[in-house]
Amino acid sequence: FTPQGGSVLPKTGFGLLLRAIKDHSMICCGTSEKDGLKKIFPWKLEYSAFDRCWWLLAYDINTKSIERIFLGEHVHIMEAGAPPIPYGEIQKEIPVALEKHRYKGIRLHITDRYNALKRCFLMFENEEITASKYISDGEYEMVFDTMDYYKTEIVRKLMYLGENVVLTEGPAGLKEELLEKMHAAGAATTIE
Q: I need a surface site. Which of 34, 51, 131, 174 has the fewest CB within 10 A?
């Protein structure tokens, strides 16, 4: 969920998040204390210039998975102390968990009209760009890796970029969701 006006950081908790990341400690996080707060290991903070939102990437030690949490004003954050396993073990587990979520080789063909190339670099600022190259006059290619939990955002960004950016290669789930959203919006297909 990302509101149109961007996220408002939790009134309390941002400093706590920074400390927890620095000190390698756990936090409890959730939308309300009565619904229950989940104990997680905060790993990374992300800011999206496109959405004007803050996100927390956290590692769930119990499920050995990465969670992406929108940091809006309704998020409650509390200290939860030291993790139940040594930090060195968590450092080894996070890359394994990340690999489970990885989408590799999303390839875009970009026709640089209306600053499409520049807008692509802005839109995909948080992605791991593995290649970008000049093809011919005004034609470029960008290849990047991302995570499955970014799929909905990638689709929104591709629709925003319009007909000058064509998805030429990517995971089946990504292509299907993009096609579905484009047909629902009556937009021209930007998938090869």
A: 34
Q: Which residues of 82-116 are buried (b: 16+ CB within 10 A; e: fewer)?
A: ebeeeeeebeebbeebeeeeebeebbbbbebeeeb
Q: Per-residue pLDDT tens for 125-165?
A: 888 999 999 999 999 999 999 988 888 889 989 998 989 99
Instruction: Identify which has the larger pLDDT, 79 or 32.
Output: 79
Instruction: Round the average pLDDT of the chain to a whole number and report it.
Output: 85
Taking a C-beta distance cutoff of 8 angstroms, is the pair 62, 26 a contact? no
Site of tokens 């890796």: 145
Task: Count the Cβ atoms, other than its own, within 10 Å of residue 150.
Answer: 20
What does the alpha-carbon distance between residue 46 and residue 161 come to, in Å, rounded to a whole number? 22
The number of CA neighbours under 13 Å toward the Cβ of 158 is: 31
Q: Which two tokens stand for residue 31?
A: 């939308």
State the Cα–Cα distance between residues 68 and 70, nearest whole angstrom. 7
Q: What is the pLDDT of residue 2?
A: 39
CA atoms within 13 A on the CB side of 175: 13
Q: How far apart, in whole angstroms, are the C-alpha atoms of residue 125 and residue 120?
A: 8
